[in-house]
Design brief:
The chain has six helices and 14 strands. By secondary structure, it is α+β, with helices and mostly antiparallel strands.
Length: about 350
């Protein structure tokens, strides 16, 4: 590949400490949801002479999840499914709620929006159903299957919105049918991030910095790698392997130009850095030694040379600002352990 197309430059310099960025993997999150709950197959032998059944309610819940990979997560949740009210010769009420343990598989819908995912959940619902008929109460606890299909939309770095339809099958075994429940809800999730691991900056021996033009890697304003971008990264992987990445820390840093808001550019730079990081990992770079972060438009290299330009000319002039930098910091693992032990002994 031509150097002008690859836009790859290497510089060796002394370094200072660099903050770690949270990975898309190993991330905890919490959330809540609220919506419309409807019960199905509500006939029951417990209530005699039923003339009317009210099976529509407000339902909702809360959940905590662990994002193991960009595509797979596990969730533990609590759902309040509401009540079914019976009127007739007797008055009765069925209440259902419980805890769920589910696996969640997601797939990005980047052809619609870079921030949109579709997902499915499936698992077990440990439910409690409570009956109250003419003042007499009874309850039952058992396990039912639960399924869900929904969409996640990333609002910013920490928050996402969720639209979901959940189905709980067989909430009880009473009478001629077993009640089921469908819950259509809107939810919000908050990312708790992943724990940062401090690296002793004084142990960094050298830094190799690779700078790749983002126009080679991505379509303008997008975060999905182009085929020529993957080809450029394939060349870079061979270089990284020669630098012995098993004893190095690799940091992928995304930069944008100044067009657009601070929040938009920060988000885009983070997503592009993560796309590069994930591809390098898929090609054999150790996942535990590479991190990604974005700095938005805060570190331009074009200065004021593009100030008089507009439109397509401005976009072309600002191309050097749209870049991904890959820092390879050679670190001796043994030195890290010895120095850290020395620090602990002198506290």
């Amino acid at each position: 590949m031509k150097k002008t197309t690859l836009a790859l430059a290497v510089a060796i310099a002394s370094i200072t400490s660099v903050a770690n960025a949270a990975l898309p993997e190993n991330t905890w999150y919490v959330g809540g949801k609220l919506g419309w709950s409807k019960f199905y197959d509500t006939n029951s032998n417990r209530v005699a002479g039923t003339t009317d059944v009210s099976a529509n309610n407000v339902g909702g819940g809360a959940f905590v999840g662990y994002q193991a990979t960009p595509y797979l997560a596990a969730e533990l949740g609590y759902d309040w499914l509401g009540t079914v009210k019976y009127e007739g010769q007797q008055d009765g009420k069925l209440t259902a709620h419980g805890a769920s343990v589910t696996g969640k598989a997601s797939y990005p819908l980047s052809f619609i929006d870079d921030n949109l995912d579709i997902y499915a959940r499936a698992g077990a619902f440990i439910r409690t159903t409570q009956w109250k008929v003419d003042g007499n109460k009874s309850s039952d606890t058992s396990v039912s299957p639960v399924y869900a299909l929904g969409f996640d939309y990333r609002l910013d770095q920490d928050f996402s919105a969720r639209l979901e339809y959940q189905w709980v099958n067989n909430l009880g075994n009473d009478g001629p049918t077993r009640p089921d429940n469908g819950l259509l809800s809107l939810g919000i999730t908050y990312s708790l991030g992943s724990p940062a691991v401090a690296k002793p900056s004084e142990l960094v021996l050298r830094e190799n910095r690779f700078v790749l033009n983002e126009d080679v890697l991505f379509t303008y304003a997008k975060a999905d790698l182009k085929p020529e971008g993957k080809a450029a990264l394939n060349e870079l992987v061979a270089t990284l392997i020669k630098l012995n990445p098993s004893e190095s820390a690799i940091v992928v840093i995304g930069h944008t130009d100044r067009i657009g808001s601070n929040s938009y550019n920060q988000k885009l730079s983070e997503e592009r850095a993560k796309s590069v990081m994930n591809y390098l990992v898929s090609q054999g770079v150790p996942a535990d030694l590479i991190t990604a972060r974005g700095v938005g438009k805060s570190q331009p290299v074009t200065g004021d040379q593009c100030n008089a330009l507009k439109g397509a000319d401005l976009i072309k002039c600002l191309a050097p600002d749209r870049r991904v930098e890959i820092e390879v910091k050679a670190i001796s693992v043994q030195e890290v352990e010895v120095t850290q032990q020395h620090k602990d002994n002198t506290k």
